[in-house]
Structure formats: C-alpha cells, structure tokens
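Run LysR family transcriptional regulator through structure prediction, thanks.
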Amino acid sequence: MTLLQLKYIVKIVECGSMNEASHELYVSQPALSSSVKELENELGIEIFTRSSQGIALTVDGAEFLTYARQVLDQADLLEERYKNAKPRKQLCSVSTQHYMFAVEAFVEMINSIKSDEYEFTIRETRTKDIIESVANMRSDVGIIYLSDFNKDVIGKLLRGKHLEFHPLFRAPLHVFISRNNPLAGKKVVTMEDLKPYPFIQYEQGEDGSFYFAEEAVWPEYSPKQINVTDRATILNFIVGLNGYTVCTGIDNGDLNNEKIVTVPLDTDETMLVGWITNERAKLSKAAEDYLTKLKSVVASHGYKLIDR
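Sure, done. The structure for LysR family transcriptional regulator is below.
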C-alpha cells in the first residue's frame, strides 16, 4: 500500500468517477483502475462497486476512506513540519453540543496562543455527529453530556468506537426563558408550569433518537414544539415566541441577559457534562490548551469540576 494509492482513492471519491479522476490526476484510466484493483487484492476487500451507472463506495470502502484520509492528513502534517522552514501551524478541532461555555473557552484558547499561524475548527452539531467526528479523528475533542436516561446507550456507543468520556462537571437542570415570561420571576419552575409555552429543542436528524437529545428532560406531551439546528435561532425563538429549552444553566455575554434568564427546573435529573477523546489518538498541544481553558471557564461560572 502506498500514499499514492490512498490519494487515488480519495480523488476518485471526490470526482465520483474513474474517468474524471484520471484526468485530474494525469493518469490513464486503465493505470488508475489497475492501481485500485491491486490495492483491493492486497487488502482483501472491495472498495468500489462498479456498474454501468458508475462506481460507488462499498461499506468496506467507506470505512477504508476514513482511515485513508487520516493517513494523508498526517502525511501532510509531516511534510509541513519538516520540509518547510516556518514554524508548524497549530491545529485544533472541537465538536460540541450547543454550549456557550464551550465557545467561550475556544475564544480564550485562541487569544492565549503564541503562534504566527494556526488552523482551528469548532462545530456546534448533533450528538451523533460529534461522536462520529471524534471516532474518525476529524475532531480532537467532543463535548457532550450523559444522564441517567442516555448513559447506557451513549456509553456503549462510545466504547464500540474506542472513545473515552471524561467527566467535567455535573449540572442541575435549568430552563432558558424570556425575561418577559410570567415564569421569569419564579425561583423554580416545573414542567407543568412550562406546558403552555413552546418547547424548543435541537433537532438530531432523521436517524436521531431520544438518547441523542441535547435536552436531558422533555415534556411528556407538548402541544407546541419547535425543532432547530443552531443556537442563535433557539435564543431568538425564546424571546420572539416566548418559548423555553432545557439547559445546564451556564450563560455568558452572548445570551443577552436583558432578554433571557435561566431558571432552575424542578427535577432530580442532572447533566454530567464532559469531553470525549479517541483512545487511539494523542491530543495536540492546542487541544490540551483548550481543555485547560474549558475547565477554567466552567469553574468561573461557579460549577465544581470533577477531578479524575
């Protein structure tokens, strides 16, 4: 197996056909097909299915593509580190549920670095996508939570993908509501109190389930329910539609405290928030710096860190 063969596979997938890939690679189509076939024979798998309609990745091929991209990314890093005279670019990628403290820590990490060049990525995304991103090593760190309801299912999924969950803090449940909501002045609210108001939750996709929900509890029946995909939208709906969502209770400047407040929810349920890492990967210095800032930010909001 060679890096060139891996590059061939990735390019074929990007182009969607052997013919177009051969043109972009400046390789004859027979030579490209022969190289792919040699690799399939060596590995004992079929990477592509071939038909009159074209080619498509097999299940084995999709898995192989994930590892091929990782190898090529690492090869690029090696070249950048040792072939160029300039300092190595700092890299860090984080995938997270929609937590403002996770973004706050990311900002602090970037402000603290001493590097002329860096490439950082933060994705606020679905729970399953976070897990897949860390499993495929596209993200160094993932931020999720466990609860009594989801811990068995999520835990089994993490173990199957060689991921480790690191507890950060345990949060009693709160709700975000508009400051103009009649419930805003209460010391604690119940799900029954919230029933007249729209329940807003983060959408988890067609293959999502209650176990992937970002909300640790939800109403047994909600006559008004809205599914959203991003944090800005959920905050606008809380104000504009007088809705609510279930959260950790941590807020910061972009929550706009003039319009939105957090109120404790009357429940025994809690959220064990933490980060996940891939057992097969070593964290970069930037990723380690991010985790340090993450702990600092959580502590600054008055939450007790879980030591391990």
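The CA atoms of residues 100 and 254 lie 8 Å apart.
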